[in-house]
Structure formats: C-alpha cells, structure tokens
Amino acid sequence: MTVSRRVALTGVAVSAVVLAVTTPMMAGSAATVPPSAGGCSATAHIDSAWGSGPTGGEIVTVTVVNTSAKAAATWTVSWTLGSGQRIVSAWNATVSTSGSTATAVNAGYNGSLNPGASTTFGMQLAGTGPAPVLSCGNDAAPPASGSPSVTPPAGADVAVTAADNGTTITLFVGQTLGVALPADYRPPTVSGVALAQQSSTGGYPTGQPVSALYRAVAAGTSDLTSQTDNACHYTTPPCAAPVALWLVHVNVLSAPSGTGQTVTVTQTDNARTVALRVGDTLEVSLPSMYTPPTVAPSGPLVRSDLTGGYPTGQPLLVRYVAVAAGQADVSTISDGGCLHLPTPCPSPQVRWVVHVTVTA
Q1: Which of 18, 92, 151, 227 might form a disulfide with 24, Cβ 3.0–4.6 angstroms?
Q2: What pTM value is reported for the model?
C-alpha cells in the first residue's frame, strides 16, 4: 500500500455503436405474421454458439415484422444483455448499449416495411446465454407516452425523468446522469461544456422511450432540453397538438481530490474486498490485455485518471477517488484482437473484479 496525493482529473466519454453491412432481407418481403393493431414484433434465433458463459460467444439473427395495418418507415428493437454478454459486431442495424440494455435501430435501407413485411439484422455476442426476449416499436403504431416503461440507463449515479422538468441537479466531475423520458419526447440536447453524452436511444420518432446517459466532464453548468413531438405536426395543414417543453439545469463541481491514502490493487487481487474512506484513492494496475474497468454502481467512486488497457497495448492504470459512502464493484475482462474476427479464436477471456466498501 502506498500513499499519493497527486490526482489528475479527466473526463472520458465512451459510446458503443457498431455497424457492419451485409446483404439484408429485402424490406417488404412476405412474412408469416399477419397485420394487427400492434406496431411490430421481433424474435431472436441463435444461429451458432461456442464456449460457455463469459468466455464463449454466439451469432444471433433477429427477425423484425411490421404487425401494424400501416406502412412503417423506422423500427427499433431493445433487449437486456445476459450476464457477461457484450456486443462484438452487428450488421443490417445500428446497435448501441447503455449499461445492460441494448438497442438496435434500422439501417437506412431496411426501415421501410409494408404491413406484414419483415427484415432481419444480426450480431455477434461475446458471452453465451439463451435467445434474448425482445421489445419492438415502429412509427406505424408508436406506443402511448410512457409505454413501454420509461427507466433510466443502468448504472447512472443520478437519474431524471419528465417529472424533473425545471429542476437543478448537482454532480461531481466523473459522475453520470441518466435521462428517461416517454417516447413522444425528442432525444435531449445539451448546452455548455460540463456534460458529455455517453449514449442516447429512443425518442420521437422511434416509438421507444428516451434513455440517455451523460458524464460530468468539467466543472461548470450545462442545460439538458427536450420537447414532445407528433407526426401530425408535419402534415398539411399541421395539427394543433400541444408541445411540452422539458429542461433540467446541471451544476458540476470538481471532484474531491484524493487527500487520503492510495490503495493499489493488481491482477493478484482478483475477487478481493477493499476498504476505503471518503477521500482515499483506489489505483487499479493491470496488464495491457484488460479493458478499462466499469464501476457498478458508480456513486461511491469517481474515476480521476485512465491510461492504457486493451486495445492500446499499454499497461492499464486507472485511479478512482472515493467520494461517497457505499459499496461498488470495479470489474473488467481481458480481450484480444482475435476475438473480434468473423470466426473468433478460442482464447478464453479472464474476468477481474474487486469489491469496494467506502465509509465516511
């Protein structure tokens, strides 16, 4: 155990969006699901799988059907990733993740579906599990405001909803803010330099609820704004449907410096429990094959420094400052270039985690 009082504060924004193109099923092709009053349906099929648990992988094909009696121009599919799973690549759709929630949005060439028509997209997953249970929406029959359920992104330190309109939120640099709004709201826009967008899914006109995640990257202020929208606003003549405005003010404060002791953990500390006090620094030192760690929940710890890790080829060094009492897991997994090939190598991935308890 060593003692250090120098901490460099940085903010790192990360997003996971992958898109690879292959030959799609023609939009408008025949489907076995008849039109109905609903919007769309989506089913998943595991085409192939190898290994087991987090060290395995699988190829999944998803079939999306327009079950509405109207033509659709866009569709969105969402699901919860299994334990240890992550998206490696995807084709015929843009797939993003926020916490354990994955969302696929149609590509430019396969969003238009006539009633009863279908299309497919595929993906490669790291980690195995049963075929996911999917939810689906499109612009032919968008869900009513608030349905499906509106939930903030997983792992956010602070979450706001439509009910928080006009409020002011305070964050430390490094903490995250989750936004959950009904499907008839546009994706939020952010002003100022204090917040950086991590991910954003749903919102008008996708038919899915807004789920957005922002990280506090600099001391200062930012405003998050949105408003409701409706397709009838764009008809001739436009309708008089009311528009609801939404605004949240965000104050970001500098994270407390690591004025206490520094506790360093390495590869040999896997599964260890670490005790910290507010103001202490946790230093994670791992070989270059490990990806940058995640913290869940991230409230007790704020990341202050990050260098190296896969795929940089440099040793991974991450520092966290304990800012609040609570418990959190700091975890990561090894990775390698061969795992991302069309036919991944059988090299096992190694998980690493430390359990952290912070007291005041």
Answers
A1: 92
A2: 0.43
